[in-house]
Amino acid sequence: MVKLTKIYTRSGDKGDTSLGTGKRVPKHDLRVDAYGCVDEANATLGIAVHTAQTQAPSLVPVLQSIQQDLFDVGADLCIPQTPDEQPGAALRVLPERIEALESIIDEHNEHLQPLNSFVLPGGSRLAAEFHVARTVCRRAERVVSLLHEREPEATSLTVLQYLNRLSDLLFVLSRVANDNGKSDVLWVPGKNRKQE
To answer: Is the dihedral of CA 140, 142, 145, 150 positive or negative?
Structure first.
């Protein structure tokens, strides 16, 4: 159980912090960067939740559920896996959560027209917020990918898969927020080039 009674401890004033195991590492440690990016993705989703309350209320429970998942992702990342780890010894993201995202993607994607071009980030305010969350999530995915490459035994591949699928879902939701894609702003390659 988490209990926060004092917000500042001064323990990180020299540039280090504790992992979930208690091990002290520099604040720029790749693992800290990974769950820091996940935290940023969660914060951007918080903005989208606020906007969705008026623009797409049916999405609010979905987004809040994802925010819960992202805290689980951070908890998973802050405690490196060990080869002898017993089931339930640490909070780990389960494959069922990836399946849940895929189900939501399928549910919403079936109402969207296929794309013939890339979509520019924007359209409605909520769509733009989903694009911001998507790009921050992709950054988290890149950092976790590097962490998994450097520490494959200590880093959950399920976390990487979850972030990948979440980025896909956020793209789909951006189109949903653009009147099911009808208000998408499409990329026109070379649109601003001078005629030769």
So the answer is: negative
Superfamily of the domain at 26-81+88-183? Cobalamin adenosyltransferase-like (1.20.1200.10)
User: How distant, in Å, are the alpha carbons of 39, 55, 145 from that of 33?
Assistant: 10, 33, 12
pLDDT tens for each residue of 22-54: 788 778 889 999 999 999 999 999 999 999 999
* Half-sphere exposure in the Cβ direction for 95 (13 Å, CA): 1
DSSP letters along the chain, please? ------S--STTTTSEEE-TTS-EEETT-HHHHHHHHHHHHHHHHHHHHHHHHHH-GGGHHHHHHHHHHHHHHHHHHHS---TTPPTTSS----HHHHHHHHHHHHHHHTTSPPPSSPEES-SSHHHHHHHHHHHHHHHHHHHHHHHHHHSTTTS-HHHHHHHHHHHHHHHHHHHHTTTTTTT-EE--TTTTSPP-
Is-above-0.85 flag for pTM? yes
What residues does each domain of the chain span?
A: 26-81+88-183
